[in-house]
Amino acid sequence: MKPGIILCTLLAINFSVCAGDNDSLAIRKIANEILGSNKAYANLEYLCKKIGPRLSGSANASKAIAWGVSALKAAGADTVYLQPCMVKHWERGGKETGFVRTREGLRQLKLSALGNSVGTGPGGILAPVIEVKSFAELDSLGEKNIKGKIVFYNYPMNPLLINTFEAYGDAVRYRSSGPSNAAKYGAVGVMVRSQASNTDQHPHTGVTFYNGAFPKIPAVSISTAEANWLSELLQHKDVLEAGFITHCKMENDTLSYNVIGEIKGSKFPGEIITVGGHLDSWDLAEGAQDDGAGCVQSIEVIRALIATGLRPDRTVRAVLFMNEENGAGGAQAYFDSAIAKKENHIFALESDAGGFTPRGFSITADAARFHRMEKWLPLFLPYGLYYFKEGESGVDIGFLEKAGAALAGLEPDSQRYFDLHHAENDVFEAVSKRELELGAINMAALVWLVSKYGLN
Amino acid sequence: MKPGIILCTLLAINFSVCAGDNDSLAIRKIANEILGSNKAYANLEYLCKKIGPRLSGSANASKAIAWGVSALKAAGADTVYLQPCMVKHWERGGKETGFVRTREGLRQLKLSALGNSVGTGPGGILAPVIEVKSFAELDSLGEKNIKGKIVFYNYPMNPLLINTFEAYGDAVRYRSSGPSNAAKYGAVGVMVRSQASNTDQHPHTGVTFYNGAFPKIPAVSISTAEANWLSELLQHKDVLEAGFITHCKMENDTLSYNVIGEIKGSKFPGEIITVGGHLDSWDLAEGAQDDGAGCVQSIEVIRALIATGLRPDRTVRAVLFMNEENGAGGAQAYFDSAIAKKENHIFALESDAGGFTPRGFSITADAARFHRMEKWLPLFLPYGLYYFKEGESGVDIGFLEKAGAALAGLEPDSQRYFDLHHAENDVFEAVSKRELELGAINMAALVWLVSKYGLN
Q1: Strand pairing partners for A112?
Q2: Averaged pLDDT for residues B323-335
Q3: How far apart are CA B441 and CA A76, in angstroms?
Q4: Of A425, B171, B349, B455, which has the maximum CB count within 10 A?
Q5: Per the CB < 8 Å rule, is B382 touching A162?
Q6: What CATH code would you report for A3-88+252-453?
Q7: What is the arrangement of strands in the sheet containing B219-222, beginning at the earlier edge strand?
Q8: Residue B44's Cα: distance from chain center in Å?
Q9: From the candidates B131, B271, B300, B324, which is the catalytic residue?
Q10: Residue A133: is it exposed, middle or buried by C-beta count within 10 angstroms (0-12/13-18/19+)?
C-alpha cells in the first residue's frame, strides 16, 4: 500500500470537489515536465553563481532584475514587466573586524553587522562585554551593569522545537529588538548569537529594527560556535574587553523593481493568481535557499504550465519580489498597485522557506476557501505534500489578504533551513535539485487547481 | 491549526489502541532527550572521521566493531556482545585506472570496480566500447556485435519516479546482472553508468553478481557526468577504444561479527525487539548515510530509553549488522542464531535508507499487526512521520519474517540518497544533525510502543 492510498481513504469522507483523474493527470504532466527538465536548477545555478549576493539597492540586485526578465521570457510568460518600488538601501561597506581581549591576548572574532544597523565609525568600539541570556535578565541587570558595555545576547534557538521556524520566531527578537533594548540601558554596542540551529563558524545576519526613543548603537552577530566559546570564557571571567569595527550605513531609499511575468487567463483574465519568491538576498551569501529557490520555483510554475499546454483559465502571475530582507518595499508596491488598479486578487502563493523537500501548505483564508483547498490534498500526496494547515503565508504576499486574496505559503521540511539562513553557506550546492523540483511541482499543482476551479 | 491535528481528526475514526496522553508524553521525553543531546551526531562523526570506510573483512571493519561495543556500552545497554558471522571479503587492491582513446588522444576516466567483481590483472583490458541502453538492446545486438568488446550500460535512474528507491530498483539490475549478461555474448569487460539520481563526477560502486554459467569479466562503474560525456562521444563515433585496469579480488570468506547491545525486558524478557542498521560500508566513502546513520540511530534508541528511564517491558536489542553491502553474512548469522536458540522475535526495525528527514514506516506483517501499528500514527505526526505502508523492511532483518517477527523499515525522504549512495561523497558532512535525530526519535517511539503493548 502507498501512503497516498492510506490518506486518500481517510480523506475520501469529505473529498468531493477534487475532480480526480483529469486533475491527477494534469499534475502528473506538470511533474514530468519539471522532473524531466533541468531548468529550475539551471536557473538557480545562474542566479547564484553568475550573479550571487543581491541585496536591495546593490549593483547585483540590478543584474538579478535583468536576469529575472529574461528567465520569465524564456519560461514563456505572455507579458514580462518591471514594477517600480522604493527599497531600503543598506551597505555593509567592507568586512567587519572583531576581537576579544583575554588575559592571554587578543583572539579574533568572525562577525557580521546586522542588516540596517549603523556602523561603528572608523575608530570602532572597545568596551567590556556582558553576557545576557534573555531580555528579563537584561532588565534585571539595568543601567548600572549595562552602561558603557557591549551586550552579548546568547539566546540559542530551542532545539526541542520540531519546526525550526518556531525556534527562529522565538530567538530572532534578540536580533531585531536587542540593540535598542540594550541602548535603553546605555550599552555602546551589541553582539548577538546567530539564529542558527546548528553549531558552526558562520555568523548569520538579518535585519534589526531601531526604536527611535534610544540611540542607534552598532550591532553584530557572531557564529554559534564562537558564542559558545565566548560564553565559556566569560564564565571563567577571562574576557577583559571586546572590540569591533563595522563600516555599514543606511543610504537613502532607492528605486528598484519587482519582476513580473504573466500568463493571461483564457476565461477569467481579471481573476489574478500570484506565485512568488523574493529576488533580493543578504550580501553574505548566494541566497540559494533564501530565496533563489522561491524565485526559480515561481518561474518554473509559469514554464511548466506553458510547456505542458495547460493554459490557465485565470491569470497566473509569477512575481520576483524585491526587498523582502530589509524593508518589504516590493511587497508594498505590489499591493499598492493592486489597490490602485482595483485588481481582483483571488489567490497568492509564496515560497520563502527554502527549496527543501515539501511537506505542506500554510493557508490564510476563511473556512470555506480553506476547506475548498484542503479537499484537493489527495492530489498532492503522490508528490510528498500531505497537509494544509491554517497559518501565515509569507512577507511578500501578506498585504494581499487586505485585497481579498486567499494566501498560501509552501512549507518545505524545516530541519536544514536555519543551518544556512542569512549566512555565507547559503549557496547553490546546498540545494538539492530534486527537492527544489518537488516544491515547484506542488506549487504548480496548487496554482493550476485554483486557476481551474477558482476558490468560490 | 497543526498538520498533526488535521490528520489526527481524520484518524480518530479508527484510533483506539493508542493510549494517547501517556504515550505522547513518553515520546516527547524521548524526543527531548535525543534533540537535546549531541550524542547520535557525535557518534556518527567518530565512526565516519576516526574510522571511515569499513568494508567487511577490512581492518577498519574490525575497528568499527570495537567502536560499536564501546558506543553501546556508553549508551547504557545491559549486555553488549559480539555475534560471530562469516562474511564476504572483497578487496579493491589499489585505485583503478581508466581511459578512453579518441581521435584526439587519451582521456582519463574516473571509475570504480564493482563490489565482488574480478580484477583485470596487471595488463588491464583494452577493447572497443559498445553502448547499450537496455538488456533488450544487448540481446538484439548479440554475440556478433558484442564479442571482444567492453559493454557500456548507460541506463539512467528514471527522474520521473518520485520515490528514488523505485528508480534505483529499476536501474540497479545493470550493475548486478550486467557483467554476466554481457559475458554471455563474449564481452571482455563492462562499464556501468552509476545508479545516481544527480549528475556529478562520482562513480558509485555496489555489488555485482556473477552467473556461474558465463566467464567472470571485470566490471566498473563510471560517474553520471562521464557516462553522458562518453555517450556523446560514441554518438559521434569518436571513441576508438577504452581501457581499464582494476586490482580487485575476492579473498576467502572471513570471520567477523555483528555487534549487539540489549536492554532486558522487565516483564517479558523472552519477547525480543530488534532495531538495527549495518556497520559495514563500501570502501570509497565514510558510509555516513549508508549506513552509519542507521547504526547511530539504533544505538540512540537504547540510549534514549535508558536516559529517560523508560525501561521497556520487552527486550530491546540494537544490532549493528556486518556485511550488508556484499553478502549479508551478519543478517544470516543473526537469523540462524535466533532459530538455533528458539528465540521469540516479535518485531524488528531497520534503518538503512539514510539519516534524512523521516516520512514513514514500511511494514511487513499480517493485517492484524499492521493495523495495530497503524493506529499509533497520530503519535508520530508531531515528529514528521505521517504514514505506515505495507512493503519491504530491509536486508538485515528480512530473514526474521521466517522467525515470525513483524518487520518495519524507516522511510526517510528519498530525494538526496542516491546523490551519494556508495560514492565518495557519502561523508559525515552530508548528514543533517536534526534530520538524523528526527529519524532516531521515530524509531525509538515505535520500539517503545511495541515494547509496551506488544503486537498481539
Answers
A1: A221
A2: 98
A3: 46
A4: B349
A5: yes
A6: 3.40.630.10
A7: B111-113, B219-222, B189-193, B150-153, B129-132
A8: 15
A9: B324
A10: middle
Chain center to CA of A162:
19
* pLDDT band (50, 70, 90) for residue A1: very low
CB contacts of B31 in chain A (<8 Å) are 160, 162
- Taking CB atoms and an 8 Å limit, are B162 and A31 in contact across chains? yes
What are the C-alpha distances in Å from A231 to residues A97, A141, A178, A226?
Answer: 19, 17, 17, 8
Q: Tell the CATH topology of B91-250.
A: Glucose Oxidase; domain 1 (3.50.30)
| Smallest CA–CA distance from A8 into chain B, residue | B10
| Residue partners of B104: CB distance under 8 A and separation at least 6 | none
**Of A324, A325, A374, A424, which residue is the catalytic one?**
A324
| Nearest-by-Cβ selection for A162 from B13, B384, B386 | B384
In angstroms, rounded to a whole number, what is the distance separating the alpha carbons of residues A443 and A445?
5
Alpha-carbon span B71 to B65, nearest angstrom: 10
CA A133 vs CA A141, A152, A157, A333, B86: distances in Å: 11, 8, 12, 39, 55
Torsion region of A18: left, alpha or beta (phi above 0 gives left; psi -120 to 50 gives alpha)? beta
Q: What is the pLDDT of residues B425-434, one digit of tens each?
A: 999 999 999 9
Q: Is A286 a catalytic residue?
A: no
| ipTM score assigned to the predicted complex | 0.95
Q: Using an 8 Å Cβ cutoff, are B443 and B303 in contact?
A: no
Q: Could you report the per-residue pLDDT of B367-386, keeping only the tens digit for each?
A: 999 999 999 999 999 999 99
Which residues make up the CATH 3.40.630.10 domain(s) of chain B? 3-89+253-453
Of all residues in chain A, the one with the smallest CA distance to B432 is A416
Helical axes A433-453 vs A21-35, angle rounded to 10°: 150
CATH of B3-89+253-453, one of 3.40.1190.10, 3.40.630.10, 2.40.100.10, 3.40.50.170: 3.40.630.10
Q: How many residues does chain A have?
A: 456
